Recover the amino acids of this structure.
């Protein structure tokens, strides 16, 4: 079974949505319940799309919505990553020596 919609991995989409929800204050069991609900919804949606249970006119809009959602989540991730780099905290992205090298290159490029 293909666990993707419009070429977007359902698993990665769910992780992105749950992580975004955590930034808005969802915690603990709430994030687990959200992940479970999203899993049921998106896997069911993927099955329905695969088995042509959804009218073709709606399929285009569903794929558009899923792609736009993934784009929004990616933008949130890039924004957060850039903010951490700017503040000198890239410890979540790389190993310690890589952090220093990345920060040095960015600061060197911005000071030119």
């Amino acid at each position: 079974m293909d666990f993707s919609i419009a070429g977007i991995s359902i698993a990665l989409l769910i992780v992105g949505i749950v992580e975004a929800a955590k930034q808005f204050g969802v915690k603990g069991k709430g994030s687990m319940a959200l992940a479970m609900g999203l899993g049921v919804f998106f896997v069911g949606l993927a099955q329905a799309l695969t088995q042509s249970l959804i009218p073709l006119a709606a399929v285009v809009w569903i794929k558009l919505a899923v792609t736009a959602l993934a784009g929004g989540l990616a933008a949130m991730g890039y924004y957060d990553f850039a903010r951490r780099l700017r503040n000198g905290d890239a410890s979540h992205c790389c190993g310690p020596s890589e952090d220093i090298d990345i920060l040095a290159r960015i600061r060197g490029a911005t000071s030119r």
Remarks:
- Residues 4-111 form one domain.
- The two ends are 51 Å apart (CA to CA).
- The longest strand covers residues 4-5.
